TrEMBL record:
One of its GO terms (cellular component) is cytoplasm. PROSITE patterns: MOCF_BIOSYNTHESIS_2. Keywords: Molybdenum cofactor biosynthesis. Pathway: Cofactor biosynthesis; molybdopterin biosynthesis. NCBIfam families: Glp_gephyrin (NF045515), molyb_syn (TIGR00177), PRK14498.1 (NF011068). It comes from Haloarcula rubripromontorii. Coiled coil: none annotated. It comes from the Archaea. One of its GO terms (molecular function) is molybdopterin molybdotransferase activity. InterPro entries: MoaB/Mog-like_dom_sf, MoaB/Mog_dom, MoCF_biosynth_CS, MoeA-like, MoeA_C_domain_IV, MoeA_C_domain_IV_sf, MoeA_linker/N, MoeA_linker/N_sf. This is Molybdopterin biosynthesis protein. Residues 188-327 form the MoaB/Mog domain. One of its GO terms (biological process) is Mo-molybdopterin cofactor biosynthetic process.
Length: 626
């Protein structure tokens, strides 16, 4: 008989948690069909390969026009334009809108060539000469540009994202049919003891036999925690068979669980196997139930020996082992379907109707939940993942006050607040940086909007580029420099900003909230000063200045598709898409922390990552750490 093993120097529960957490039970990542991806966890970032929508489309019924033809039109002085044809949703336009003409268009239809705006039908009247336009529109009015929902090249979902029906909807919109996910840890389950009988086999109660409860109970608990249970045959107290099964399970699984045969009074073959093929890291825990607990390794597999009593085995598994299985699978403890928090900002409403307000959650430095409104429009697929749930606002509510307690109905019990909430500039290096943070959420609202919301206390950090990067009072935790300018075709003859102003080129701009746009406008001011003309005159000379996009790659994608000659963008984007680039300088990108949340662990992790940016800038043209 082997020496009996006694429990000396019992580990504390805290020590046991640390030892189990230190086990390597991480499975290899795998790829699964989109239809099988629900409840899995993304193993890597998914970027949008296409624009959603993939074309410029009308957002209402009316007439597609060249916006300049409507300038000055109003109810008292309408403009009459000829009708060149019509465009319906789901068909390719067969009409071109030349100056002086329009095309009748349906909601959702592709914008025809030559048109850059839509006049709603309510502001028009059909006449014998064509159609009477009683309002003026600007380029882009009543048009949803390609990529307005999510643009090609944008960060769609990050690693660690739990895939729910919301994410499946976004992946579907992007055309993704196979999803890279974290593997589910394989967990081998063995029950020992001569008295155990598998359910379905004859039971001799007079001989003290009992059904094997632990194998099935633990298999269910493993599956609930996100693992893949693998049940091995019952070994009884046949030590050679037990040793063989332990070796087999260790060779095939990431984690091996056994129950029974770990008490001080038992002849412990498990102890011998661990000594021969692995390492014993813990024997006994000062907790009731669960004192006889073993933790170690067998070969390359982690091993945990659980008590023999079913309640004790399940309790110890849920307390110490289930969190490690969940972490390996990318999951955490489940949440309830509702969450209570306080409004981070005041939200006005006042329409007199009941409102289901999409809302996001973020934790402050103390761990208290803050609730902020999310409103990108009902047609935006990305709202599904930017919002965690909704607040039911009763009719007659004029506003929700800052600091007011509200209940959020979560979209899924699996919803958790992001560890880090960021807002601000859209940037390709930022996508890489966010990959280093566990479960971040980032809203690319532009530099000025990010800075404004940081001032309101909503995000943990704001990312600000261009002149605004130096115009703030927030805590600067790091940043980088990026080269910006004009993205052009490979054979373009555009050599500088003067060529764009003086030539006949179709231009695609960025929205006014972006740092790129502000730097670009400053350069246009300089051109105006050198020429002794106003900025308005310089802007008027650029065809397309008013047509703006929200994502950093969108102008370049327009150039790549042949829909524009020049786009405002980054050298990194031009290099990625094999396009030409005319440099207009460099601009700083700064990451600014909310002063009240500088102590959050995720903000600290981001600051640490910013101190080691060189590895992230590898292969990114025009990006330099600072």
């Amino acid at each position: 008989m082997s020496d009996r093993r006694e429990f000396r120097d019992l580990a504390s529960p805290e020590e046991a948690n640390e030892v189990v957490a230190g086990l390597d039970v991480d499975p290899e990542p795998e790829t699964v069909p989109l239809a099988d991806a629900r409840d899995r966890v993304l193993a890597e970032r998914v970027d949008a390969d296409i624009d959603v929508p993939g074309f410029d489309r009308a957002s209402m019924d009316g007439y597609a026009v060249h916006a300049r033809d409507t300038f000055g039109a109003d109810e008292a002085d309408p403009v009459t334009l000829s009708v060149a044809g019509e465009v319906h949703a789901g068909e390719e336009p067969d009409v071109t809108v030349d100056s002086g003409s329009v095309a009748e268009i349906s909601t959702g239809a592709v914008m025809p060539p030559g048109a850059d705006a839509v006049v709603m039908v309510e502001r028009t009247t059909e006449t014998d000469d064509g159609v009477e336009i009683r309002t003026s529109v600007a380029p882009g009015d009543n048009v949803m540009l390609a990529g307005a929902d999510i643009a090609a090249g944008a960060r769609a979902l990050g690693p660690g994202t739990r895939i729910t029906p919301r994410e499946i909807g976004l992946l579907s919109a992007l055309g993704v049919d196979e999803v890279p996910v974290r593997g589910r840890p394989q967990v081998g389950i063995l029950s020992t003891g001569d008295e155990l009988v598998r359910p379905g086999d004859p039971l001799d109660s007079a001989a003290g036999q009992i059904y094997d409860v632990n194998s099935y109970t633990l298999a269910g608990a493993v599956a609930e925690a996100g693992g893949e249970p693998v049940m091995y045959p019952h070994a009884g107290d046949d030590y050679e068979e037990m040793e063989r099964l332990l070796h087999e399970a260790a060779d095939e699984c990431d984690l091996v669980l056994s129950s029974g045969s770990t008490s001080a009074s038992a002849v412990d073959v498990i102890y011998r196997v661990i000594e021969e093929r692995g390492e014993l890291r813990l024997h006994g825990v000062a907790v009731k139930p669960g004192k006889p607990m073993l933790v170690g390794t067998i070969g390359d597999s982690a091993y945990v020996g659980l008590p023999g009593y079913p309640v004790s085995a399940l309790t110890i598994f849920q307390t110490f082992v289930a969190p490690a299985v969940r972490n390996a699978a990318g999951l955490e403890q489940p949440q309830t379907a509702t969450a209570s928090g306080t409004m981070a900002v005041q939200e006005r409403y006042g329409e007199g109707r009941r409102r289901l307000m999409p809302a996001g959650l973020v934790e402050d430095e103390a761990g208290s939940l803050l609730v902020y409104p999310v409103d990108k429009g009902s047609g935006a697929t990305t709202s599904l993942v930017d919002a965690d749930g909704f607040v039911d606002v009763p009719p007659g509510t004029d506003y929700l006050a800052e600091g007011e307690t509200v209940d959020v109905t979560l979209f899924s019990p699996a919803v958790r607040p992001p560890t880090l909430l960021g807002m601000g500039e859209d940037d390709p290096l930022l996508s890489r940086l966010l990959d280093t943070i566990d479960r971040p959420r980032y809203l690319p609202l532009g530099s000025t909007e990010g800075l404004r919301r940081l001032g309101n206390g909503v995000p943990d950090v704001a990312v600000v580029a261009g002149p605004a990067a130096d115009d703030h009072d927030a805590a600067d935790i790091g940043g980088w420099q990026r080269e910006w300018g004009l993205v052009v075709g490979p054979e373009s003859d555009v050599a500088g900003l003067g060529d764009l102003v003086d030539g006949e080129y179709r231009f695609v701009n960025r929205d006014s909230a972006s740092g790129l746009r502000r730097s670009f406008d400053d350069e246009l001011d300089a051109v105006g000063e050198d020429r002794g003309v106003s900025r308005a005159e310089v802007v008027d000379a650029i065809d397309g200045y008013e047509l703006t996009t929200k994502a950093h790659e969108s102008p370049a994608r327009k150039v790549l598709a042949g829909d524009a000659d020049v786009g405002l963008g980054l050298r990194a984007t031009a290099a990625k898409l094999d396009l030409g680039f005319v440099s207009l300088g460099t601009q700083p990108v700064r990451v600014l922390a909310n002063p009240d949340r500088r102590g959050k662990a995720s903000v600290g992790a981001l600051a640490e990552a910013l101190d080691n940016l060189d590895s992230l800038t590898d292969g990114m043209a025009g990006m330099e750490s600072q």
